[in-house]
């Protein structure tokens, strides 16, 4: 499909109507993190809309950004129109966009390296607080690297549970003596489940 030229417009935030069947959920914590990002970096990701049968600007993708803009009291937000899509296409695209944004992860080594070098309040954007930068690798860093290399994904990453890969991954972790139910401390007063 050939897409038309995308033009960004500023529109009143109050004029945007959420798509009633948008299945992606946005927790208050995530909306706060998006709002923190907008405050820090600006509104750099316009909201995709289309004009519905009632002539309203209905959100196709960007529901979380609309909620964050409302939280920040923003009177206007940037949007672009997807009116070249049919009703069926834009409804499907809402779900396809949501899914494809979930279908990737981070390279934990590159992410960790950059986070340690950049001076930001990472926790306010949903990241764990970075460990202090040091010249020497600790045992924990070395173990994390070997696990990431061995499994192709760090043990703390989100896995797609529908594919069942987590079951095989857990069997591999247990074979190495990693017991996820004990938490990061590896013992203490945590009780073990049968």
Could you characterize what this model shows?
This protein starts with 8 loop residues before the first strand and ends in a 19-residue tail after the last helix. It has helices spanning 28-41, 63-71, 87-102, 108-117, 139-151, 165-175, and strands at 9-12, 16-17, 47-51, 57-61, 76-81. A 5-stranded mixed sheet has the order 1-5-3-4-2. It is an alpha/beta fold and 194 residues long. Helix 1 crosses helix 2 (63-71). It has 6 helices and 5 strands, in the order E-E-H-E-E-H-E-H-H-H-H. The chain is globular, with a radius of gyration of 21 Å. The relative contact order is 0.11.
CA gyration radius, whole angstroms: 21 Å
Strand content: 5-15%
Unreliable spans: 186-194
Overall pLDDT, averaged?
A: 80
End-to-end separation in angstroms reads 53 Å
Helix content: 25-40%
Q: Going across the major beta sheet, what is the strand order? A: 1-5-3-4-2
Helical stretch tally: 6
Query: Main beta sheet, described?
Result: 5 strands, mixed
Q: How many strands?
A: 5
What would you call the structural class? alpha/beta
The helix/strand series, from N terminus to C terminus, equals EEHEEHEHHHH
Explain the layout of strands and helices:
Elements (H helix, E strand, L loop, with lengths): L8 E4 L3 E2 L10 H14 L5 E5 L5 E5 L1 H9 L4 E6 L5 H16 L5 H10 L21 H13 L13 H11 L19
Parallel strand pairs: 2-4, 3-5
Antiparallel strand pairs: 1-5, 3-4
């Amino acid at each position: 499909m050939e897409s038309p030229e995308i033009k960004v417009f500023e529109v009143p935030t109050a004029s945007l109507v959420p798509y009633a069947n948008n299945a992606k959920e946005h927790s208050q914590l995530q909306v706060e993190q998006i709002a923190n990002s907008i405050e820090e970096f600006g509104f750099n990701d316009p909201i995709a809309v289309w004009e519905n049968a009632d002539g309203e600007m209905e959100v196709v993708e960007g529901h979380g950004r609309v909620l964050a803009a409302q939280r920040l009291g923003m009177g206007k937000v940037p949007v672009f129109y997807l009116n070249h899509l049919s009703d069926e296409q834009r409804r499907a695209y809402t779900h396809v966009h949501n899914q494809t944004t979930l279908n990737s992860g981070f390279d934990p080594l590159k992410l960790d390296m950059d986070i340690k070098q950049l001076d930001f309040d990472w926790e306010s954007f949903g990241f764990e607080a970075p460990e202090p930068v040091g010249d020497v690798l600790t045992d924990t860093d070395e173990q994390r690297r070997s696990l990431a290399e061995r499994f192709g994904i760090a043990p703390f990453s989100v896995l797609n549970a529908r594919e069942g890969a987590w079951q095989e991954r857990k069997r591999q972790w247990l074979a190495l003596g990693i017991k996820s139910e004990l938490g990061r401390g590896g013992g203490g007063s945590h009780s073990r489940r049968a």
